[in-house]
Amino acid sequence: MARRDPSSGPATLEMLCGAFAAATGYSLKWVADVEKSGPSEDSAPQGDTAGWPVAVETDHGMACGELQMDVRGREPSLPDQTDVVALASLLAGLVSQLSEARSALRSSTAELASQAATNVQIKRSGPLGDRIESMLKGAVMSLDCAAAGMYLLDEETTELQLRATWGLSRNRLALSPRPLEGANADLEAMLGHAVVLTSNALFDLWNVPEEDFGAAVCVPISTASSVLGTLWIFDHEPREFEERETNLLEILAGHLSVELERETLLRRNR
């Protein structure tokens, strides 16, 4: 089973709320599905709670909610309520700012991905990041897998950078690129051969980019004239992949290259 990245959205809030309670003695929790209206500078307690609307960037998109603090003091030794409310308000603002930064990172990495592609003219249908992420999600759901990632070559074709993902922590997009040298599975895929790893026994040998999974498949993302990168799909447990499943991934990789080419042409014509 893959380990959860502790810096992803929900886990971060759980840790933050726990640390807040341990430090102040006041309970703090995040409640989902509360309409976002922006953090209030002066949230006066309403009954037993005070609340600050926030938007949280999770692995699967932005979620609106509210940080709520129980303002009832249970012990004489607890800090002054006014100071604690002010601290909680500041934390809510920081959570929203961090979430917005993560969302901007996802958009910028998808836009950077289009710079690696060449030419195809198709009418634009929506933001590049949303289209690619939707395709990755479709592949994961169709094959009953856990996650997918699109890794693209840099201009010098010496490194591979994760540019889009579904099911992996968005923080992975901010990691340094992987050297192409030694990326054995990616290199083999770029030669036109799908690499199917039915268990993690050979993950180290093939230099799989995500270690905490039980099986993986790597296929090339390429056009008629150039190789753009690789598409990886991961599952939590060891499993077999049928030929039709790898064929489906190769078709998806072809669609990804078309999307990248389309975005590049549109960018040039602006």
SS elements, strand count: 9
Principal-axis shape: elongated
What is the CATH topology of the largest domain? Beta-Lactamase
Strand content: 15-25%
Largest sheet: 6 strands, antiparallel
First-residue to last-residue Cα separation: 46 Å
How many domains? The number is 2
Low-confidence stretches are 1-10, 36-42, 116-126
Secondary structure category: alpha+beta
User: Largest sheet, order of strands side by side?
Assistant: 6-5-4-9-8-7
N to C succession of SSEs: HEEEHHEEEHEHEEH
SSE blueprint and pairings:
Elements: H1 9-24, E1 28-32, E2 49-58, E3 61-70, H2 81-114, H3 128-142, E4 147-153, E5 159-166, E6 178-179, H4 184-190, E7 195-197, H5 203-206, E8 215-222, E9 227-235, H6 243-269
Antiparallel strand pairs: 1-3, 2-3, 4-5, 4-9, 5-6, 7-8, 8-9
Helix pairs in contact: 1-2, 3-6
Please characterize this protein's 3D structure.
The protein has 6 helices and 9 strands. With 270 residues, the chain is α+β, with helices and mostly antiparallel strands. It has 2 domains: 9-110, no CATH class; 125-269, Beta-Lactamase (2-Layer Sandwich). The chain has a 6-stranded antiparallel β-sheet, sandwiched between helices. Helix 1 (9-24) runs antiparallel to helix 2 and helix 3 packs antiparallel against helix 6. The longest helix has 34 residues, at 81-114. Residues 1-10, 36-42 and 116-126 have low confidence and may be disordered.
